[in-house]
């Protein structure tokens, strides 16, 4: 049902009374019709409506200066028409526009006059818009009061549209105050009402609001899905989505995608500036950008954005928002290294202000005040603030509870209680695990662990101080590669997703062919990026179904599996220094090695050397690379290198060191060496049983310098193997054959995407085989050999997680992988691979077969570098 405050009149063929509802059903159509009304010299009442419609359009989607100009004209024409209700309605719209332009006092004055001028039904609509303005300003109590007065009148008048708007607003205010259940009830009621209207913009807003409610209740995949649906609806209407960007930034940050949130906020700010849009929205976007920059470890950007947001909010008299911006500003200054008593006082003042305002962010502010006080040695002040922050650990959404457990851990550390620190960290990380397993996408699971980075660091520091290497090993395991503890949720049989992936392969293949011809490919690259966004969006919507490994890591079980002959070396990083945990012969020993930062620099030098050695004629670089390997060993293993024994060695490095070519280190050069993301992953791989039948699959991709010679020769060795090459080596066919295979060998060009690790790929005949494709496998091959460059490269995300081709395979049933961490010489790879398969045919595990294959290579720089570049992952 539609109701308006004006009588049934027409201008031309259009009903003027329909223009106001139309502006939120079809905004651009309403704008065109309103402009048409003004061209026909309308009477004052009609002119007032037309100017109001144009003002609303400009206010929400265009230039605020034009909006105010048209709304003032609408007010003047309403006064000439002598209609008090018409004037009240325009005053309400003008008041909202003034508030959005930062003229808070003028806006509230206009809204107050509107409430006094209006009667009955019209007055209820004005009350709704004043409630909306109170919400924008952060005055939630006043907003709820005005909505409480408006809703019964709107319902009694049978005004479906405005009742739905009022319920949506009330739900949004409840969310701001942390009342998720009340908000969900109001959203549900509003959605029922929207279903019987044609208000498409309002319907899109309702979907957006449901996304925010899903996020507040802890359902990140549902939030992302609903926000994407809302964006699609807005796109059909051709309207900007600044509020949506603010909400998406919040969800992206919670998902560990801070860099993307910062990019989205900055893009929206630039777009808003370009059209002269609402200054209130700009301030909110600046706050979103500041928060994102803070989460992305960019304190300089966070400080700049937050400082500007504080100034804008203060000028707009928006105390709620100003307090939140000040919280981010203080946190950014602290992250930049600033420590002072004034900073403690500022944080405490913001915390108290947030309590007064009823803001759920208050515990975060108390935690910050306590943390800064601890840095300054003010233990009494710290205890007071941390005690308040710790109260949030018992209830609320996951991230709020983690804030409380972080505060509790800091309290225990200040009191000297190692047990208390570890208990608080355990409880906080348990909360994170529960949250993480609601996420279906492996990327989100990995990135979400960033929320627990502080708890993980506190636990490891406490474990190191307690002096027990077993305890440090347990906590090192608790904090690494947790995203691999269970397979990701399989992408659904989603026709749209499958269509996007097919189109993506086709476009990527065309772009590659065009580049090889030396022609520019900007249009193809744009389409490729669009499809990547679509694929990623669909996969991030997946809700988690798999449960993690409920069994806690058991040191005794690990030592039993290692026996007397195998050593497992787990490298933990505590306060920037590498701690070597040497496991084997029934015990765990700890050795201290070098600084992580120095090891990372040396590893980069080694990688650069291997790239040079991949080309003939670089023999002179070999001594330089070997010297770098000796320095790297000292930094990573230190005195532990002398205690490795004679048997196989399993290396468990932190995520930032997974590119190290471990076979280059002198003490590991002649050994059987394998690498695992965690000791728990190694145990799971060791206990993985091969599939029945043990099929062999050999795949040859296009464009190899050797023509894939190794596959041709291996096909003769494995008489019954499935060989996919030329036109048969398509992604669908390759995936079908890989599923459940015993052994797979893929010779293809590999690419690692630092900007999007889930799009790292192997080149097949019809385009790239990407990580998202591997995750569709029911069971990945028991053993897989990736005879391709850069297949052992990973993106380090979250607390200590890895994204890449290898890590996509390990949770899906693969027990062993051979992959390459650097560019290699194609010709030199062939004899290495043939020798590797000779070892496998003799019954050797992958790590031992790879060791023997290296030994069988010619003793020149090219072949030695090729052998060092390949690593065995897993356990067999």
Major sheet: order of its strands? Answer: 9-8-10-14-17-18
Low confidence ranges: 1-14
Mean pLDDT: 88
**Global Rg:** 31 Å
In which range does the helix fraction lie? 55-70%
- Main beta-sheet annotation: 6 strands, mixed
User: Helix count?
Assistant: 38
> How would you classify the helix and strand content by structural class?
alpha/beta
Overall number of strands: 18
Termini separation (Å)?
A: 69 Å
Shape: globular
Classify the beta-strand content into a percent band: 5-15%
Describe the fold and architecture.
It comes from Streptomyces erythrogriseus. The protein has 876 residues and is α/β, with parallel strands linked by helices. Helix content is 60%, strand content 9%. The protein has 38 helices and 18 strands. The strands form five sheets. It has a six-stranded mixed β-sheet, with helices on both faces. The longest helix has 22 residues, at 495-516. The termini are far apart. Mean pLDDT is 88; it is low at 1-14.
């Amino acid at each position: 049902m539609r109701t308006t405050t004006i009588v049934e009149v027409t201008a031309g063929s259009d009903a003027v009374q329909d223009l106001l509802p139309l502006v939120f059903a079809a905004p651009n159509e309403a704008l065109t019709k309103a402009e048409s009304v003004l061209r026909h010299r309308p009477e004052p009442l009609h002119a007032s409506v037309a100017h109001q419609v144009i003002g609303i359009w400009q206010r929400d989607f265009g230039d605020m200066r034009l909006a105010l100009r048209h709304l003032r004209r609408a007010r003047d024409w309403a006064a000439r028409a002598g209609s008090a209700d018409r004037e009240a309605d325009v005053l309400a719209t003008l008041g909202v526009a003034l508030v959005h332009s930062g003229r808070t006092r003028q806006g509230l004055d206009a809204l107050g006059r509107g409430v006094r001028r209006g009667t009955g039904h019209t007055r209820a609509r004005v009350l709704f818009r004043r409630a909306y303005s109170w919400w924008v300003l952060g005055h939630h109590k006043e907003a709820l009061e005005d909505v409480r007065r408006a809703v019964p009148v709107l319902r009694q008048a049978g005004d479906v549209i405005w009742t739905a708007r009022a319920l949506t607003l009330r739900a949004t205010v409840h969310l701001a105050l942390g009342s998720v259940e009340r908000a969900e009830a109001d959203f549900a009621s509003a959605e029922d009402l929207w279903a019987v209207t044609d208000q498409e913009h309002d319907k899109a807003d309702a979907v957006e609001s449901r996304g925010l409610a899903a996020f507040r209740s802890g359902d990140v995949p549902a939030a992302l899905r609903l926000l994407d649906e809302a964006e699609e609806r807005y796109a059909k209407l051709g309207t900007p989505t600044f509020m949506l960007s603010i909400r998406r930034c919040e969800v992206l940050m919670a998902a560990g995608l801070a860099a993307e949130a910062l990019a989205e906020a900055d893009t929206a700010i630039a777009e808003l500036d370009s059209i002269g849009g609402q200054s209130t929205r700009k301030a909110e976007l600046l706050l979103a950008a500041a928060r994102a920059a803070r989460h992305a470890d960019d304190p300089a950007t966070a400080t700049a954005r937050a400082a500007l947001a504080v100034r804008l909010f203060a000028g707009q008299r928006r105390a709620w928002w100003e307090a939140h911006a000040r919280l981010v500003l203080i946190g950014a200054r602290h992250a930049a290294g600033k420590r002072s008593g004034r900073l403690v006082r500022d944080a405490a003042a913001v915390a108290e202000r947030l309590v007064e305002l009823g803001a759920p962010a208050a515990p975060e502010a108390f935690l910050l005040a306590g943390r800064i006080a601890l840095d300054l040695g003010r233990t009494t002040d710290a205890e007071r603030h941390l005690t308040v922050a710790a109260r949030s650990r018992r209830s609320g959404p996951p991230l709020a509870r983690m804030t409380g457990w972080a505060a509790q851990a800091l309290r225990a550390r200040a009191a000297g209680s190692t047990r208390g620190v570890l208990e608080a960290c355990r409880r906080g990380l348990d909360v994170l695990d529960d949250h993480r397993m609601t996420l279906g996408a492996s990327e989100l699971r990995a990135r979400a662990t960033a929320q627990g980075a502080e708890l993980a660091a506190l636990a490891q520091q406490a474990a190191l101080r307690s002096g027990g290497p077993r305890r440090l090993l347990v906590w090192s395991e608790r904090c690494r590669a947790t995203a691999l503890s269970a397979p990701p949720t399989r992408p659904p049989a989603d026709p749209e997703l499958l269509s996007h992936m097919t189109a993506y392969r086709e476009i990527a293949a065309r772009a590659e062919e065009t580049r090889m011809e030396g022609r520019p490919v900007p249009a193809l690259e744009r389409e490729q990026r669009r499809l990547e966004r679509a694929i990623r969006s669909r996969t991030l919507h997946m809700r988690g179904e798999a449960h993690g490994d409920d069994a806690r890591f058991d040191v005794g079980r690990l030592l039993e599996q290692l026996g007397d002959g195998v050593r497992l070396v787990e490298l933990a990083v505590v306060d920037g220094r590498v701690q070597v945990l040497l496991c084997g012969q029934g015990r765990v020993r700890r050795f201290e090695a070098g600084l992580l930062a120095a090891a990372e620099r040396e590893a980069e030098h080694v990688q650069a050397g291997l790239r040079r050695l991949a080309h003939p004629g670089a023999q002179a670089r070999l001594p330089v690379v070997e010297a770098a390997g000796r320095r790297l060993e000292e930094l990573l293993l230190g005195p532990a290198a002398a205690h490795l024994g004679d048997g196989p060695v399993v290396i468990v490095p932190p995520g930032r060191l997974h590119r190290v070519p471990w076979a280059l280190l002198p003490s590991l050069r002649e050994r059987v060496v394998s690498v695992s993301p965690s000791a728990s992953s190694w145990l799971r791989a060791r206990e993985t049983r091969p599939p029945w039948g043990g099929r062999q699959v050999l795949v040859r991709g296009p464009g190899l310098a050797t023509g894939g010679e190794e596959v041709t020769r291996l096909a003769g060795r494995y008489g019954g193997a499935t060989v996919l090459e030329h036109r048969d080596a398509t992604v669908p066919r390759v995936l079908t054959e890989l599923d459940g295979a015993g052994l797979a060998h893929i010779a293809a060009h590999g690419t690692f995407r630092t900007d999007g690790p889930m799009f790292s790929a192997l080149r097949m005949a019809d385009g790239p085989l990407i990580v998202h494709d591997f995750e569709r496998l029911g069971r990945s091959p028991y053993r897989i050999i990736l005879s391709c460059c850069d297949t052992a490269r990973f993106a380090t995300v979250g607390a200590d997680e890895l994204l890449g081709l290898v890590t996509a395979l390990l949770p899906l049933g693969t027990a062993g992988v051979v992959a390459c961490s650097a560019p290699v010489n194609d010709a030199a790879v062939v004899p290495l691979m043939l020798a590797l398969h000779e070892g496998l045919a003799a019954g050797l595990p992958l790590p031992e077969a790879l060791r023997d294959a290296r030994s069988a290579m010619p003793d020149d720089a090219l072949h030695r570098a090729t052998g060092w570049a390949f690593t065995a992952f897993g356990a067999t």
